[in-house]
Design goal:
The chain is mainly alpha-helical and 804 residues long. Helix content is 61%, strand content 5%. Strands 6-5-3-8 form a four-stranded mixed sheet. A hairpin with a 4-residue loop joins strand 11 and strand 12. The longest helix is centred in the middle third of the chain and has 42 residues. The two termini are 40 Å apart.
Length: 804
């Protein structure tokens, strides 16, 4: 499967943005994690401490008197008057409803008189049933008024008892009644009625702000006792009504009083939200109380005890200095990280970039591991502070840092990218973690040494138990480094030293165990392949290799020999022998789909291509690349093997069928691109080795007399042809590498095709010499009939063994 050139251009075009994006992202994460620790106070004093030196103000600044500010704000809040809303329209609304209710019923009596029974007879309480029957028989004005009782109550806004309503009918809802009722309501409502006078009277000392809901005007009222409470207002109805109701008889007076008490409503209400809003504004409006400190003013003298005011000045001065240092410290930390990242990228990562996809996969892995280690360092710092403040073992706080498994990053990078990048990564992480942990130079040395050693010891890991072995060795080395650091920092108490040894040892062991658990997750997530996985794939009992052995035995034998050739050659040129061998084993698994179309699997001299057109034969041969990638993907063989399958023929020409097509159709009618493998060309040294070994091994089978000189000439000729065709342009194989590869191939092929002595059944000659035989062989009897049976013994000879 060929790489799309357009796709490659797009990747290269976007590559700077990807690199800068990763760099920018790591820097931002580092600064976010680091920010609370950017500023480290040089000297801290507590109340009562003795000053070690004179401290003067470096510049003019202000300090806030928080207590005075608090008192002023509290006073401002207390001075805010409570807001009450005054509904001035409520009185007119009650008057309007009363007039309307009485007027509607009174209009009935204003109509022309019609014959009817007397109202007093109709409304006599002693004969209500008779009244009802008469109402049904002949509706009079009183009857009409009675029927409109629900409407009267609804308009008036208060219920009216039957007896009271009968009295109103009797009086024909006279206007003096409504006028007396309105006069009483108006006087009480205009005075002001509050729902809860007890709450109102709590503001009697300050007064309240009375705000009109209609005009939005406000006034301060201090005479709060003049307002009526709701119960008080109902009581005042009788007092105010006595002179007004004096002309009326007792029943009518009681009626008017009851109606007035039912209609009275509070028209002054507390506005809590407005009051709280004004209190907040008053509090915000009070500026902090500040005292100016002049430059050069003595803050604290040597030998003095720190007083509260001096402590406030010290804290304000330190905060001022810290705020000014935050930007500079953050910028410096960011520049340190950027310089380290760029250096590691230029010197180590970019120099080893293969294809773009792998390159950015490596960058993404490094970025993820870096961010994880930054977070781990930050969490460890917080945990250390918790140990120091909230446990019974504060002496374990500083030694706890020796147990942080920072070395897992170097081990993972070494496993999946390489030792050189891991060493540079160790320097990068050690510097950044030391900055996060309060600029601890001793911890930088500790983390750099154990990370470097961990990466060095794990570089050739091919067994899982090696993780534990590295962890144990790292734990012992950590103890030595922790002891040296304890001597350097003069923390030599027995308890602290024991804590340091314990954290250092278990930190080293933990690195090995954690890396053992993380390695498969990283391998799956990022598509890497470790040596451990490659060793498992190198086992010839793998299902796909067994299937290849059964269905395509010639291809299987060819693949095994190619694996041996590339393994030996890889060791000569410092490539990865294990990767090369596994790629050699699996490079032709695509031939399982159509094994009989490949010469090494054909039998009885029958060639299926004799009946096919050259173009079809070319298509079948090139398809084994696509089939191989599909099989590798289904068996999850990993990207390295899939790349080797895809690249081991590069874009080489299938010359035999190309020449045959030209003979049949003419040179002008044949496109050479139709007879080339789709590529891409080998991108790694291991893939280049597989290409060379594949061609050399297949061609060496055709040698009739494979002497060392013929093998050497064949190898040299084939490698030169592949090199001249440009198939090795992208795999970083030098001429020196090609020379060493040729020598390695010669040695292996000479071992396979070495000259053998021909053995014969002739009897031995004199002096112990044999003719075409060996001295330890018995002379063989000559049989005349090689296909017959031994009549004397009655048994047949095994002369057709292995023949079909």
């Amino acid at each position: 499967m060929a790489i799309d050139p357009n796709k490659k251009t797009s990747t290269s075009a976007s590559s700077p943005y990807v690199r800068w994006g990763i760099l920018f992202g790591i820097t931002i994460v580092f600064l976010v994690i680091l920010y609370p620790s950017l500023v480290v106070k040089k000297q801290t004093y507590r109340l009562g401490d003795v000053a070690e030196r004179n401290i003067k103000a470096p510049k003019d600044f202000f300090i806030e008197d928080k207590e005075a500010t608090f008192d002023r704000r509290r006073q401002a809040v207390d001075a805010v008057l409570t807001v009450y809303d005054h509904d001035t329209r409520l009185s007119s609304s009650l008057i309007q409803r009363t007039n309307q209710a009485f007027l509607i019923i009174r209009s009935i009596y204003a109509e022309k008189e019609q014959p009817a029974l007397a109202a007093d007879h109709l409304l006599s309480p002693s004969d209500e049933n008779q009244n009802d029957s008469l109402l049904e028989a002949s509706p009079t004005k009183d009857e009409q008024a009675w029927l409109m009782k629900p409407d009267f109550e609804k308009i008036l806004g208060t219920p009216v008892s039957n007896n009271s309503y009968r009295l109103l009918i009797k009086e024909q809802f006279a206007q003096p009644i409504s006028q007396a009722l309105i006069t009483i309501l108006k006087e009480i409502q205009n005075n002001g009625v509050v729902a809860n006078k007890e709450i109102l009277l709590k503001e009697a000392d300050k007064g309240i702000v009375l705000r009109s809901l209609q005009t939005k005007t406000e006034q301060v009222v201090t005479t709060l006792r003049t307002f009526y409470g709701l119960d008080q207002a109902k009581s005042m109805v009788r007092i105010i009504g006595d002179p007004i109701l004096k002309p009326y008889h007792v029943e009518l007076r009681e009626l008017i009083v009851d109606l007035a008490q039912g209609l009275i409503l509070p028209n002054i209400t507390l506005n809590r939200s407005e009051t709280e809003e004004r209190k907040k504004e008053a509090e915000i409006g009070i500026k902090p109380v500040l005292y100016q400190i002049k430059a050069g003013e003595m803050i604290l003298r040597e030998g003095e005890r720190v007083a509260p005011l001096q402590l406030k000045k010290l804290d304000a001065m330190q905060s001022l200095v810290d705020d000014e240092m935050v930007f500079a410290s953050g910028l410096g930390a960011a520049l340190i990280l950027v310089c380290l990242l760029v250096s590691v990228y230029i010197v180590y990562i970019n120099q080893r970039a293969t294809v773009g996809q792998d390159h950015y996969k490596n960058l993404l892995l490094i970025a993820c591991v870096l961010v994880t280690l930054f977070l781990l360092a930050k969490l460890s710092l917080s945990f250390s502070e918790t140990i120091a403040l909230n446990t019974n073992y504060p002496e374990a706080a500083h030694p706890f840092f020796f147990g942080i498994p920072i070395a897992i990053g170097a081990m993972i990078i070494c496993l999946f990218i390489g030792l050189e990048v891991a060493i540079a990564f160790s320097l990068l992480t050690s510097v950044c973690v030391a900055i996060i942990l309060q600029n601890r130079f001793d911890l930088f040395i500790y983390f750099y040494l154990n990370s470097t050693l961990a990466a060095y010891w794990i570089q050739n890991c091919r067994e899982r138990k090696m993780f534990v072995q590295v962890g144990l060795k790292l734990g012992i080395v950590n103890i030595l480094i922790a002891t040296a650091i304890s001597l350097y920092t003069q923390e030599l108490t027995a308890m602290k030293l024991l804590w340091a040894w314990g954290f250092a040892f278990f930190g080293g062991v933990g690195v090995g165990i954690i890396t053992l658990g993380l390695a498969p997750l990283v391998e799956i997530s990022f598509g890497f392949t470790t040596d451990i996985t490659l060793l498992e794939l190198a086992n010839l009992d793998q299902p796909i290799l067994r299937k290849l052995m059964i269905e395509a035995p010639g291809t299987y034998h060819h693949s095994v020999i190619v694996g041996s050739l590339v393994e030996a050659a890889a060791a000569e040129i410092d490539a990865n022998p294990l990767v090369a061998k596994v790629c050699g084993y699996y490079h032709d698994i695509g031939k399982i789909k159509k094994p009989l179309y490949f010469i090494e699997n054909q039998r009885d001299g029958k060639n299926k291509h004799d009946k096919l057109a050259p173009s079809m034969s070319s298509l079948i041969l090139t398809s084994h690349i696509k089939h191989g990638v599909e099989i590798a993907r289904s068996y999850k063989l990993g990207p390295q093997i899939m790349d080797a399958i895809q690249q081991h023929h590069g874009t080489s020409l299938i010359k035999y069928f190309y020449d045959r097509a030209k003979q049949q159709r003419g040179e002008d009618a044949v496109k050479i691109e139709d007879f080339r493998y789709p590529g891409p060309k080998p991108q790694t040294r291991e893939a280049g080795l597989v290409m060379l070994a594949d061609v050399v091994e297949a061609a060496s089978r055709t040698l009739e007399n494979p002497t060392p000189s013929r093998i050497q000439g064949l190898v040299q000729n084939l490698i030169n042809k592949i090199f001249s065709d440009g198939q090795l342009d992208n795999c970083e194989l030098t001429l020196k590498d090609l020379h060493n590869i040729a020598k390695s191939f010669n040695n292996i092929l000479n071992g396979i095709y070495h000259h053998r002595i021909e053995y014969s059944d002739s009897p031995a000659l004199g002096n112990g010499k044999v003719k075409n035989g060996g001295p330890d062989r018995q002379p063989a009897k000559k049989e005349k009939n090689i296909t017959g049976e031994n009549k004397a013994n009655g048994t047949s000879h095994l002369k057709r063994l292995g023949l079909s």
